[in-house]
User: What shape does this take?
Amino acid sequence: MSRGFFQQHTWLRFFYRQTQRSGFTLLELLVAMVIGGIISAGLLVLVVQLIQANSREAARSDTQRDLQAAIDYIARDVREAVYVYDGNCLLERPTGSTLECPGLRRYLPENISENASNTPVLAFWRVDALPQILRDRCKNNADRFANPRDLPAEVRGVPCLSGRMYSLVVYSLNSEQTTGAVGRARIRRYELPQFTAQGGAQIPPQINTGWVDPVSKETNFFSWPLNISTLTASSPLSLQASRPGRTTSNFVLTDFVDRIGLYDGAGNKAQPPILNGYEVTPRRESSASNEPPRGFYVYVKGTENKGALNQEVVIRIQGDAAGRPGVAGVNLARPVIPISLETRVLTRGVTDKAAE
Assistant: This one.
């Protein structure tokens, strides 16, 4: 076929030239690589954002579930309370009309009440069943109850007739970053029962150090553990032989609580709102800058009844998912993924719930 034929037919000439090429030029390859890189980078950014969003949502869901389990546990615990302390009675001894209330700080284990990283928030008395070993002892000596003098030492002083005892429970907000700590702060539970499980059939029951009967002739829930006859003295008499020792038995309910909890528009500490008829605990301070941590706080109503009537308790937790896999920011000033929960509980007072 002659060359002139291709010159007369332009489209055939173009096809002929294309068939003579062996590949792409360097410029074409560079352009293709740049375009491909831009598209790949965009897709990579999108994938990373999707993974991060999925991680944050999973962290939020897991934290929400943990906090809900924690607040439900606390609510069930408080429903069994016979007396709940409010912010005026929990830490320091107030003055004025509430002089009878001693403040519990100096009567709790030091690592709970004297630790700058640990703030007692909720304290109450509840009625618990005796340890099984003591119930078995009571059952084995049931025929001797008619004459208390004949009771053996192994059950002497044990409330066998009711099979129950009073226990002091304290929930705290703890922000120590110790080994095993993951989140910004955590809620811990401490319990001081009258007795603990003790082995040996002949061992006399030992009352736990620091435990004092809150319904004895010398004291009551409101004034515990002070002798009520010395309340007006400059140095009221404590019925505790000694303060409870440092405890390691307080366990963690949840590890993802925000320590500060409440913030104003500028990101500074904020005070909890006032609920008419309720006392907030820890106690509300005169200024926001002096406020205690509010990642976990409660409102209590009816403390002045000294356990004779029902009390109402509002529990609030300000959580944060910081520390979860894929969620950094444990040391930031503000929560990364804030979560707020609230529940209300009505206690039933002492009526029909006394230990014996």
